[in-house]
Amino acid sequence: MNLKGIVSVTGKPGLYKVIGQNKSGFILETLDEARNKLLINPNTRIAALTEITIFGLEDDIRLRDIFEKMGARAKELPVPEPKADNKALKDYFEKISPDHDKDRVYVSDIKKIVSWYGILSSLPLWEEKEEAPEAEQDEDGTE
């Protein structure tokens, strides 16, 4: 799964792909069929999905890892709708990520994760491999 360039914008529903940046802000494209483009000013808070974590009992859990677990178990454990009953969402998330901090991960967070999974799972980027970080090289070209 390649989440590079996929962001969430505070105050706006859905997910967006960063397609550019200029002095006025970021140029984003919606991930839906319409592929609308919008300009977000630099003061608007955006969060890259690659950087988002949720509270865990031991360590924070990367959103990417949760998405992978959801995808791997989708056949045996169907993903509920984001508007499902709060108890159903909590029960589902407990099965997907039993080591999350139940006191600090709210139902609204779970709804957002389930909603984002629904958007991402239908896109080709779900099948793409994440680009490996390039190893730093010395001046002579060796690592």
TrEMBL record:
Q: Which InterPro entries match?
A: BVU_3817-like_C_sf (IPR049281), BVU_3817_N_sf (IPR049282), DUF5606 (IPR041218), DUF6852 (IPR049280)
Q: Which residues form the DUF5606 domain?
A: 3-49
Q: Residues in domain DUF6852?
A: 52-120
Which Gene3D superfamilies does the record match to this protein?
A: 1.10.10.1650, 2.30.30.730
| The protein's name in its UniProt record | Uncharacterized protein
According to its UniProt entry, this protein's organism is Anseongella ginsenosidimutans
